[in-house]
Amino acid sequence: xxxxxxxxxxxxxxxxxAVMLAAIMQMLDTTIANVALPHMQGSxxxxxxxxxxxxxxxxxxxxxxxxxxxxxxxRYGRKNVFVISVAGFTVASVLCGVASSLNExxxxxxxxxxxxxxxxxxxxxxxxxxxxKEDHGKAMSLWAVSVMIGPILGxxxxxxxxxxxxxxxxxxINLPLGILAFFIMYTLIPDAERVERKFDKLGFFALSIFIAxxxxxxxxxxxxxxxxxxxxxxxxxxxxxxxxxxxxxxxTTKDPFLTPAILRxxxxxxxxxxxxxxxxxxxxxxxLLPPYMQNLMGYPVFDVGMILAPGGIxxxxxxxxxxxxxxxxxxxxxxxxxxxxxxxxxxxxxxxTTFVPARLIIESGILQGFGLGFVFxxxxxxxxxxxxxxxxxxxxxxxxxxxxxxxxIGVSIAYSLFAVNLQTQHAYLSENITPYAFSLGLxxxxxxxxxxxxxxxxxxxxxINRQAATIAYVNDFKLMMWVILAIVPMVFLxxxxxxxxxxxxxx
Length: 507
Description:
Elements: H1 9-28, H2 37-44, H3 48-66, H4 69-76, H5 78-98, H6 102-116, H7 119-130, H8 136-164, H9 169-172, H10 174-188, H11 201-224, H12 230-252, H13 260-263, H14 266-296, H15 301-308, H16 310-325, H17 331-349, H18 358-383, H19 392-430, H20 439-444, H21 447-487
Helix pairs in contact: 1-7, 1-8, 1-10, 3-6, 3-11, 3-19, 4-5, 4-19, 5-6, 5-10, 7-8, 7-19, 8-14, 8-15, 8-16, 8-18, 11-12, 11-19, 14-15, 14-18, 14-19, 14-21, 16-18, 17-18, 17-21, 19-21
């Protein structure tokens, strides 16, 4: 088994800082644009529905290009792929900042996702390589912070930059960070041993079609009435066809796109399932809260960011606690605790109203960040506990892919359910409040009073819209709570450190 790469403590610290910076940049851009979307709308001449592509184009591109990260690292060297990805991501960020139309923005966001796909999995693989096995728990705690802090700080930083500068600075902020990470990596990061193998083009193509089609179904379904639309039926056909091609091809080829040994590892596959749901909950929550606070509660964009920021405090506290407990407490116990705490925070969000105090939002955010930290960090350690070292880059890519898919699917489902619930609740609340209910009285009243009553009805309708939207948001939060509780039994499928065979010998 491969041993840890020996480098000096000073060099290790610099490399750790650089790879965490790269991971933060990539994850930051999954949410930083959320609060800036209303400000982009006018500049890009786009509708609200069209602006969703600014978010999903990036996520889908990142998800698809995460697939070949392992092969690219083995073929061209992990360091080369890492450095080029950082440079490309930085340039694409600047291009997003200068975009003048929706088409340009979507194109540049795709480029961002294309180059950014490798940043998170390679940062994880690099930290595993430069740390001894007994230090993997602490290393994964640091890595998990970079992955989780990005989405949490995104709304805060995005709100500040949009409020006081311009929405374009949401993307320009990556320029100094990218330049710093690039030069540290180029000069100090060690290269891992190359394990070159044949690239399965058909497998990659089939999986790409599968992922893209699922995202298109979720993005377009609520607009086109789902299976009533020929377009959605076509995408469903692509999903089934791509899945069939991939399964048949994988069973018959000598060099499948995903190494079978990875898929047979119980710990990794169980952790993979968990990561899907963690990604789903984390980003869906962060996507719903900004419009909830801006549209229903009337918070300015900067205040939204400040209220959501304490969620990062919860994650930082979880990092400190988990790193201290990693060598003394079974990571499965920490995952269980984190899941239950996350479910409790979502139950708090189920009590939100149009007049919910900021204190309750902050408290639920801190608890959720703390709970997800306790899930994410030990889970990252458990995932690679029984996996051979030579599969790390490929496994890390698959790990990030599933998390990205969870995030993308979570956002799409959350918005779709919100739209359906909004219509349903509005119809239910307004069924007895219509102008026709007062038709007889209106005919007998002076015109002046008629106008006042009409204005009052408009105000009532506006309040009904607010109440319906509140119920729709709460229903989304409630569904996420039940999803978390439903996956709790999966904890018992994980093997703890004492029962597992070592993945590598300590250096």
